[in-house]
Amino acid sequence: xxxxxxxxxxxxxxxxxxxxxxxxxxxxxxxxxxxxxxxxxxxxxxxxxxxxxxxxxxxxxxxxxxxxxxxxxxxxxxxxxxxxxxxxxxxxxxxxxxxxxxxxxxxxxxxxxxxxxxxxxxxxxxxxxxxxxxxxxxxxxxxxxxxxxxxxxxxxxxxxxxxxxxxxxxxxxxxxxxxxxxxxxxxxxxxxxxxxxxxxxxxxxxxxxxxxxxxxxxxxxxxxxxxxxxxxxxxxxxxxxxxxxxxxxxxxxxxxxxxxxxxxxxxxxxxxxxxxxxxxxxxxxxxxxxxxxxxxxxxxxxxxxxxxxxxxxxxxxxxxxxxxxxxxxxxxxxxxxxxxxxxxxxxxxxxxxxxxxxxxxxxxxxxxxxxxxxxxxxxxxxxxxxxxxxxxxxxxxxxxxxxxxxxxxxxxxxxxxxxxxxxxxxxxxxxxxxxxxxxxxxxxxxxxxxxxxxxxxxxxxxxxxxxxxxxxxxxxxxxxxxxxxxxxxxxxxxxxxxxxxxxxxxxxxxxxxxxxxxxxxxxxxxxxxxxxxxxxxxxxxxxxxxxxxxxxxxxxxxxxxxxxxxxxxxxxxxxxxxxxxxxxxxxxxxxxxxxxxxxxxxxxxxxxxxxxxxxxxxxxxxxxxxxxxxxxxxxxxxxxxxxxxxxxxxxxxxxxxxxxxxxxxxxxxxxxxxxxxxxxxxxxxxxxxxxxxxxxxxxxxxxxxxxxxxxxxxxxxxxxxxxxxxxxxxxxxxxxxxxxxxxxx
Amino acid sequence: xxxxxxxxxxxxxxxxxxxxxxxxxxxxxxxxxxxxxxxxxxxxxxxxxxxxxxxxxxxxxxxxxxxxxxxxxxxxxxxxxxxxxxxxxxxxxxxxxxxxxxxxxxxxxxxxxxxxxxxxxxxxxxxxx
Lengths: 745, 129
Known about the structure:
The complex is a heterodimer. By secondary structure, chain A is α+β, with helices and mostly antiparallel strands. Chain B is 45% helix and 17% strand. Chain B is built from five helices and five strands.
């Protein structure tokens, strides 16, 4: 038997140990010994000499404890180590000579175990010395929230130790937090990307490190908790869920506030005392860390039961503790035995859990591919309608062809429906961002506001999501700033102190409706009307309806009027909101009750890819007018036509004089009719009033797929895009706003 | 008595942290200090000037402290350079990995100037023996 390698290794190690520099083991020596021991284990394994393997293994454990400074009596440990080396040499010799070892290593292993055991209990005692250690985090049983990890120490006055360092820390720390915010948005899009987790992990880690030097206990503790949460996400122990992202964002905000507070102290400013509930934030972090995810992903059974209202959080935690004592028992089982829930409820929850897992059977597709697909399906639909027209006359003759074509059409339209639905995403994310915004704004405004979300699962085209965000933000901001009163005011008028903003989404008639409601002071009709009369916007106030009064706040002149907005509390920039909504082919309405609150109701098309339009003809050209802006179409009589000096050609329609826009003049084409009383005029609305568009004839209504005109023609005024029509020809889609501007040039 | 005129390289991606270490070093008499913001920059510094001592953070972008340590130990010219690893907490796995890779010692944040000085002295003394 060849044991030379093993003997050689053992001799090498013995020398290393005996000729070490210092009496107790220093780190470099320990490192060398560790590497030696690993090789010995490898070699022993090859030769199947398990006593050596076991000895070496326990020596590694001892060494690791020595390295971690977790051994009480280092000299004793070193002696034990020495005896271990001799023991292994003895075993090796015995194997070399007789092929076996008769002695017993049990006694030695007991000794090493004692040293290691000591080290562990020692660790538990000296926790204050080493802030966190592996043993503690690893033994934390799931379901249990270790109290000691939450740094909810009593409020200590912050003491600045080193001013210049603290200044650096503030500047660099804030920079890092900004970096976190950017990266977390990336992570939200690609939750599996470890690089993004790392990019968020590291800044927290750095902040924690410096904060520990500067004795900023709150900052250190929070950063530490966030860091260890992310560490688990990085190791794949927990999933990156929306609630994880939320809590990290909230954590970043809290850190930012804490650092801001620090800056205030440094600058001698009293500063508003930051009202931060760090302990509850840290509690949330720990809950997520242990898989109590309240959002997406497969929820634990207990959480489902809590959500469904069958048990309370408290009961859940208690029962979880019980189940830890008897590990072979499932939570549901214990709950039933305790008589807390019925078996049927547990079964229901289990089914839900399975459903959630099934939810995960999804495929990620690049949005560009998706857009291409939808685009092509759009073309297919158009081609289909071309074929339909071509075949119209022949179809009657051939019964079989008729049937097949009909089938083909049905498939095409379901294909279109399915492909469009693929790009639909729930509005949840937008709503969550919004409620975050409310939280921030409320804090700034010193108001107490809660947010209620209704219909978060309502779907909308993902391309629309970004577009509607800004107008919605503006309305929410209005509600927080102006709509809702302060707690004192609310208390005075007998309302609950906490204001409420409700965000609600639902589908209605091919549109998505989003309502933003507050239970604030409501619009003051009188004041708006008075102001409007003063400014001349309203001439006959007797006949005006409530709805029309509310609409006044969308007028630019009124909205910026300082007094009305401040007193009535509405209208800051509402004209801008209205324009933005209309640009998306949406509509906005207001409902309000003085003293009870205001609701903004916005309607948006589900997608911008398809437009509902009226096809009109001028000469040989076809144009598409968005249906949403059309009020009426009529053939005027000669008496309704006026040429007003200074205002140009006007048509009297619907009892109003409206400017006439002759499309043929604007686009320079040869029309069929040049006089309005021969042609047709379409009354088109815009925020700057209504106009009459003169066209030759109306072809009909159609849903068309909007096509961009390409880079070169993108910015042509008055044209929003192109579409291929049923006859295969191209029609230009009219952008009414732009067209009106063009007509005035 | 250990010479205090050694050139120390402080590696950390967080500038404030480098300053913290620099200040602590100055408190105990070390004046000749250079800085690097990650492992890559640190290696560049090590190769372009004579550095007597490295104090490196564990967690850094581009090249971590452990990777830097391994690179230093693998380079014949630099292999003997004392290397002190700074970690946020004494996580057994991390520390053992560093020790196996040949770290001279490790130090857990936060530390005082005295502890830092002790570690540096101990390391340099054992080398000068």
